[in-house]
Design a protein that fits this description.
Helices cover 44% and strands 8% of the residues. By secondary structure, the chain is α/β, with parallel strands linked by helices. It has four domains: 12-47; 65-120; 128-192, no CATH class; 221-385, Nucleotidyltransferase, domain 5, CATH 3.30.420. α15 links the parallel β4 (292-295) and β5. α2 crosses α3 (38-47), α11 packs across α12 (170-178) and α14 (271-282) runs parallel beside α15.
Length: 386
């Protein structure tokens, strides 16, 4: 069912990803720009805790490709190491080591030697906290007491004014926490940070314009028509997001009378992505079966008015922390966990995969339907409206 993922991002795409992240764009916005799922973007960012890698630069002291080409030509011409070194303005020992570590005089190739040197420069560099155990222990102890990295860095200067070994910047502490590949500080210490974030966010990131905790002009479930509650008329839906690993999501829609399920692939969980995807799928339904949609209080449906304008579906919202008010959808999501266990990366499923899983679920008989299938009930409803 799940397909192999798309090829990884190129170096230029990764640079673009980090630039956009630094500019404060959301996972969904970056994904749209790079034609990738938000979950794929999250996977790249989470490996480094949201902290962009430092651009690599060659040291001014190392041999350049041009110098290596001069060495290669000198070897071919039978020049001595001392004469080559003098021409380059380098010491003979530098030229000698360069030739020896790259195959010797007979096998030396400038391009191969330059590439090998670039790769050797990738060796891991230990950070200050890794090199100074006492400093690391003090920092970890203060983090466990819920001190912020900035507080710790400032306190160290006051507490150990004459001990330069007890100095560390707040940025180094953050990097040691979020970039777990360093293996310096325990991952559990992240939970003591006030933000409780698992990734470092850009200073430019903002929630401005993104509704948090409230949806503009939301219509309460208490104002829903009575016909929705008694399930006598088809065309009333419940919906929510099903979440997976690496910030991946799919939308689930369930028709209340028939329990017919529709699964919708999402490029991200921002309101634009969700509403666009729901609009596309709901417009495929007969107009008579597009009456209402009851949703949770999630901000992903903040643009509910756009959905209503495009489909004619009136959206109602549950009370806060009241998932039982859309119990049909909640029960269906539990059934779907048979196909999408917790921890599954949902971005690996195509829309065709989701359609196939929804078909399987809709062809399972339900006790509440007298052991008939949701598909049969829904098809009867479609036939009655045509």
């Amino acid at each position: 069912m799940a397909r192999m993922g798309r090829p990884g991002l190129s170096d230029s795409q990764k640079k673009e990803l980090w630039r956009r992240w630094k500019d404060g764009q959301t996972l969904s916005e970056i994904g749209v720009a790079l034609c990738r799922q938000a979950g794929s973007i999250h996977g790249v960012l989470s490996l480094r805790g949201g902290i962009a890698p430092i651009d690599r630069r060659r040291s001014a002291l190392t041999l350049t490709l041009t110098e290596r080409e001069e060495i290669s030509r000198g070897l071919a011409a039978g020049q001595s190491i001392r004469s080559m070194a003098a021409a380059l303005g380098r010491s003979p020992s530098t030229v000698s080591r360069e030739i020896a570590r790259n195959g010797g005089a007979q096998r030396y190739r400038a391009s191969d030697a330059d590439e090998a040197a670039w790769k050797r420069a990738l060796r891991p560099k230990q950070c200050r906290l890794a090199l100074l155990p006492r400093l690391r222990q003090v920092v970890a102890a203060r983090l466990a007491e819920r001190w912020s990295p900035d507080q710790i860095a400032g306190w160290l200067v006051e507490e150990f004014p004459d001990d330069m070994a007890m100095r560390v910047s707040h940025e180094t502490i953050y990097r040691s926490l979020f970039v777990q590949a360093r293996g310096v500080l325990e991952k559990e210490l992240v939970s003591y940070l006030r933000s409780r974030r698992m990734m470092r966010r850009a200073k430019a990131s903002t929630t401005k314009g993104q509704p948090r905790g409230r949806i503009i002009d939301a219509i309460s479930i208490r104002d829903r028509p009575p016909e929705v509650d008694d399930r006598t008329i088809p065309g009333h839906w419940e919906g929510d997001l099903l979440s997976g690993a690496k910030n991946s999501h799919i939308a689930t829609l369930v028709e209340r009378q028939s329990r017919f399920t529709v699964l919708v692939k999402l490029p991200g969980k921002d309101t634009s992505s969700v509403v666009t995807a729901l609009r596309r799928h709901m417009r495929k339904l007969p107009a008579a079966l597009r009456k209402t949609l009851t949703w949770d209080r999630g901000g992903e449906l903040a643009s509910h008015k756009e959905l209503t304008a495009a489909t004619g579906v009136q959206v109602y919202f549950c009370d806060p922390q009241s998932p039982w008010q859309r119990g049909t959808n909640e029960n269906t999501n539990r059934l779907l966990r048979q196909y999408f266990p917790d921890g599954t990366n949902l971005s690996g499923f195509s829309q065709a995969d989701l359609n196939q899983i929804a078909r399987r679920l809709n062809q399972r008989p339900r006790k509440t339907l007298g052991y008939q299938t949701p598909m049969k009930w829904f098809n009867n409803a479609v036939a009655s409206t045509s």
